[in-house]
Design a protein that fits this description.
The chain has helices at about 25-40, 50-55, 60-70, 100-145; strands at about 5, 15, 85, 90. It is mainly alpha-helical. Bound molecules: zinc ion (2 copies). One zinc ion binds near residues 7 and 24.
């Protein structure tokens, strides 16, 4: 049973079988991709920035960023194509976050780990104390006997 959906781009009802947008929008995106790709492949445009590509092709920057994120346009080949980090807005050329935002997330994880380790040590220590008291108590009992 084919699933009907509204195209997220143009709002038209379409059959959601192979694509997430309707075929007219898919064709339009493909056309835009060809346009962008033809533009940046020109020698003089190899180092073009997002703005320049947007201006030169009339394609939305959002869409160009999508091509880059999808890996269809490689920033290793086109070093001018940077886009904002989703967290702080710094210019990045791959993934969704810049290096320092990625670092922050990792730091956060590490901190959680070391807190967990600290809790563990605390538990171990109180267990030790318990054992000490316990054996001390045994001795006291023995002495009394
Ligand atoms: Zn559409
Ligand atoms: Zn960032």
């Amino acid at each position: 049973m084919p699933e009907l959906a509204n195209c997220p781009k143009c709002g038209k009802v379409f059959t959601k079988a192979f694509r997430s947008v309707c075929s007219a929008c898919h064709d339009e995106v493909e056309r835009q991709f060809q346009e962008v790709y033809a533009f940046i492949r020109k020698r003089e445009n190899r180092r073009a920035t997002m703005e320049e590509v947007e201006e030169g092709t009339g394609v939305d920057r959002e869409q160009i960023v999508t091509f880059v994120r999808e890996g269809r346009i490689l920033t290793s080949q086109f070093p001018g194509l940077s886009y904002p980090c989703e967290s702080c807005g710094a210019e990045i050329r791959e993934g969704r976050l810049c290096g320092s935002c990625k670092g922050n997330i990792q730091d956060g994880l590490k901190r959680r780990d070391s807190e967990a380790a600290f809790e563990q040590r605390k538990t171990d220590r109180s267990k030790e104390r318990y054992t000490t008291y316990h054996s001390l108590g045994d001795r006291v009992n023995k002495d009394r006997r």
